[in-house]
Design brief:
single chain; 232 residues; alpha/beta; nine-stranded mixed sheet; 25% strand; globular
Length: 232
């Protein structure tokens, strides 16, 4: 089984690159430049919602291509063409919602280098899905409960910070936010954890580190969820 890391802070990038077990590292594109080390192992991550700034973000991706980067993460159908127009290879993210063989075939025809199974797909369904490219699974991380354009913590303004804990749900859980480039994710207070990735029907596992988390090959957590992977 191969492993990949998704990081959310600048400090985490160097830590992830130092772990040889990570085949690739998904890193926010604003952290990257010609001076960044380990370019061939880094997949640039654009924002989920460009917000009318597609030409601006495409220009950033073109500069990364010229600097030696090879690929970028596609959150949506629109991202695929945006990434390809910059000369980079599109890698599919879990937001593409790949849940069946027909969707998988269409994404392959659009040029995905690899993809990540939908979070709503069970292990049983993964085993029956036909594919010709590598497929991964989210194996660890505080995954987004919702995504919005304004920070609910900072008076509905773009705060540009990650790791706020001022939101509390009805059960008393503190909710962390992840803010970047005009969008905000409200993260699940309980991380997804799959302890044994060797048994999952995928080619690679992705571990996603929130702000304040230490980058490690096999993260641990006292509280966790198994997600929907075990459903029928």
């Amino acid at each position: 089984m191969k492993y990949r890391a998704e990081i959310t802070t600048r400090e985490q990038l160097s830590a992830a690159l130092a772990i040889s077990a990570f085949e690739y590292i998904y890193a926010p594109m604003e952290f990257l430049s010609a001076k960044t080390q380990g370019k061939r192992r880094i997949i640039a991550v654009p924002p989920v919602f460009p917000g009318g700034k597609e030409p601006q973000f495409a220009a950033v991706l073109r500069k990364l291509k010229q600097a030696g980067f090879k690929g970028a993460l596609a959150h949506t159908l629109g991202h695929i063409e945006l990434i390809k127009s910059a000369g980079l290879n599109p890698h599919g993210g879990f937001r593409l919602n790949i849940t069946n063989s027909l969707a998988q075939k269409q994404y392959e025809e659009l040029g995905l280098a690899d993809g990540i199974f939908s979070l709503e797909l069970s292990f049983k369904s993964m085993m029956t899905l036909e594919r010709k490219i590598p497929a991964g699974i989210m194996a660890y991380g505080r995954l987004p409960l919702m995504i919005m354009r304004r920070c609910p913590v900072r008076d509905d303004k773009l705060c540009g910070k990650s790791g706020c804990y001022s939101l509390t749900d009805r059960l008393g859980n503190k909710l962390q936010t992840y803010c970047r480039l005009g969008e905000v994710e409200v993260l699940n207070p309980v991380p997804l954890v799959l302890n044994n990735c060797s048994e999952v029907p995928a080619d690679f596992c992705v571990v996603r580190f929130a702000a304040g988390e230490k980058v490690r090959e096999k993260p641990v957590s006292e509280r966790f969820t198994r997600g929907l992977y075990g459903k029928i």
